[in-house]
Amino acid sequence: MANRFAAFRSRWLTRLAGKSPRSVAGQVLVLQVALVVLLVACGVLAVFLQSERDTKAEAISRSVAVAQAYAHSPGVLAAVQSPDPSKILQPLTEAGRKAAGVDFIVITDTKGIRYTHPLPSRIGKRFVGNIGPSLNGQVYTESVHGPLGHEVQAIVPVEDSRGHVVALVAAGLKVKNVTNAVDRQLPIILGTGIAALLLATTGTVLVARRLRRQTHSLAPDEMSRMYDHHDAVLHSVREGVLIVGGDGRLLLANDEAGRLLELPHDADGRLVTDLPRLAPELRSLLASGREASDEVYFAGERLLAVNQRPTDRDGGPKGTVVTLRDSTELQAVTGRAEIARERLRLLYDAGLGIGTTLDVLRTADELAHVAVPRFADYVTVDLADAVLHGEEPAATATGMRRTAVYGVRDDHPLYEKGRLIDFVPSTPQARGYGRGRSELVADLTTATGWHAQDPERTRQILDYGIRSLIAAPIRARGVVLGMANFWRSTQHAPFDEEEVTLAEELVARAAVSLDNARRYTREHALAVTLQRSLLPRALPEQNALEVAYRYLPAQSGVSGDWFDVIPLPGGRVALAVGDVVGHGLHAAATMGRLRTAVHNFSALDLPPDELLSHVDDLVGRMDQEEADTESVAGVMGATCLYAIYDPVARRCVMARAGHLAPALVCPNGTVTFPDLPAGPPLGLGGLPFQTAELELAEGTQLVLYTDGLIEDRRRDLDEGMQMLADALAGYPERSPEESCQAVLEALLPGRPKDDVALLVARTRGLAPERIADWDVPGEPAAVAVMRDAVSRKLEEWGLFELGFALELILSELVTNAIRYGSEPIHVRLIHDRALTCEVADGSSTSPHLRYAATMDEGGRGLFLVSQMSERWGTRYTPQGKVIWAELALPAAVEEPGPEPG
């Protein structure tokens, strides 16, 4: 209240200080200045009129005196009665006029004919004026327009000894000369008036300044409003207000303050130390003048919140203003409000702190940590064991897994985390789970049904001091997932019904997050299972490469990263790595379709660029199918790298579709990234793919990977590739398995944000003695020569058991090459895990297997080849084609092992 009063006073005074024209002092100043101006103006006017009147009166008096003097002067009567009065009187009147200071002296006869005049030409002419009264013996004054202009004149009769009027004497002044006399006095009059005005205005301004300071420049209506507010503070405000002067005397106390402090009626003006019925602490505060904010003091049976502020902060008089608020009735309400505020804050924190991840165990831990110690001393969370695996929970509280335990102390006797619990039907947990309602046990010592769960354990819990329990079911979508148990020890009051509602609110916030985490766990498990089922479960057996791999799923969801190792005819091996943009089941399913397509196209023994072209067409058709079904889950993007390594030629041919270039670790430990042409991602279509052929020294490591290995929010692509090169460089003797581990430790110290597929293959070469080849002339006799040469090589390799079948196959293939193909014709035998016979010629025509009829003479050659071999096929080369056939080695013959790197 004190702050509001001070702010009110400061706001009013500051706002009104700029309104002096409307203030009381301003209005008084204006009125006083106007009055002074009016009085001075009236005084000047009065002085002016008085001066004018006095000047005219003086002129008339002088005229009368001059005229009477001449009328009674000796000799005038005789001169008038002389034969020529003008001759005698004219010089005398002119001399007298000049001596008397008048403008004219005129003597006329009784008929008004002039004897004298300042203008001689006017002598003998009729006098201008009223001579009637003067002929009757009177002195007459008047203002006329005579020969000299506007004149003021006095006419006096000249009488003889018998009293008869014999002549008239007129004397006077021009009005112009009378006005000039007034004008000469006007500066003195105005100067006196201005001086009086300045003196009076200065006094008025001084009085107004004093009045302004005393009224704080307030306008009359504002002063009235201030007095109304003053009366409201005194009589209507329901807070006590005291104003104490600098000398410690009480200057003001409103009605509420008098009621709260039980002040006497004569309290105003008394020292606060002399006021009766004040507590010593409150009396000391009022006398000290120090600042106080919401300090609590007793006044009788009342509990008062007291605020005290000084009044001289803004230049006011020294003293303090004190506000008193009766908080006796609010004390209990304040306590309840504080409890409600703490509960709301707890629920707010629970909304922020629970469900930060899609992990069931983490969410249960967050629920326990939020509630301890602000609501419970210990919290345990028991979930149906099926929930932890993403499945639907059971209908009864059996098979409950304790997923979270947290409390104010760690030595509690509650069941430990991870324990599988079967709650008996009489326990609060079983009842709450079955009914879907919270169970309150205010006193665990009397809960016999709870004791039946584990008598020894319950005795330990009671001895530990735990006395109260709320078992709240964790419900989501109408299904109970588990129970949250809130325990309270004897150090706090037992739970009540109101706190059951709070526990249910807390659990409700966690239930949605737990159910989301459960459903995510199920979906994630399904996606991971699908993805792993689509990835290679084991590497195929082959001698061309020593291969190791790593596949790491992302933190959340699964992606479309994949890899494959595919044995090809002639001891060759194909390596494939791909990535489908996106996450989830759709990405995993798309990845499986692409991997299957690559597998199928590789069976056709296509070059890498042709294989990628076929896969690109397939992805385009997949997108078209998705568009036709109005599905939003099309193939958003896919990349692939396909490489074929030939251990016989020690060459690797590769092509890529929007994928990252592989890394090559040379036998000397250096790391390079080959300049492999970057084709467009799969599905765009319209652009060709290009191949690059590399000659790899034996022992070279070929490292294929997806972007999840090197790309991250914290580093760009170039930095990731440099880190990969650093992890691989300098260790040529390291095995592919060791290289995989080293790369992951260097680039992925934690769980990756995206899927990662890593494939490391060390090249091997096939020993020259395991290879035999011949150039074949294009004539039929060469067939027999080739049969003999092949038979000798089989005997050398110890494969004479395969002689008949291989001779038959070789005869048919060479005969077809000579008959239908073109030179050059070349035969090659490869002794690896199988015996491969290859016949190459310069023609691109492909033979077709057909079944000859009984009467046909030909058409059975390729049929015999297919029957005698394990598999056969055609591979096209830039020089023509190669027809190959594989025969399985006899069981007694040891398969050749890999050559040392």
Automatic annotation (TrEMBL):
SMART domains: GAF (SM00065), PP2C_SIG (SM00331). Gene3D superfamilies: 3.30.450.40, Histidine kinase-like ATPase, C-terminal domain, PAS domain, PPM-type phosphatase domain. GO terms for molecular function: ATP binding; kinase activity; phosphatase activity. Residues 542-763 form the PPM-type phosphatase domain. GO terms for biological process: phosphorelay signal transduction system. Residues 382-524 form the GAF domain. Its main location: membrane. It is a multi-pass membrane protein. It is found in: Cell membrane. The chain crosses the membrane at residues 29-49, 186-208. GO terms for cellular component: plasma membrane. Keywords: ATP-binding, Cell membrane, Hydrolase, Kinase, Membrane, Nucleotide-binding, Phosphoprotein, Transferase, Transmembrane, Transmembrane helix, Two-component regulatory system. This is SpoIIE family protein phosphatase.
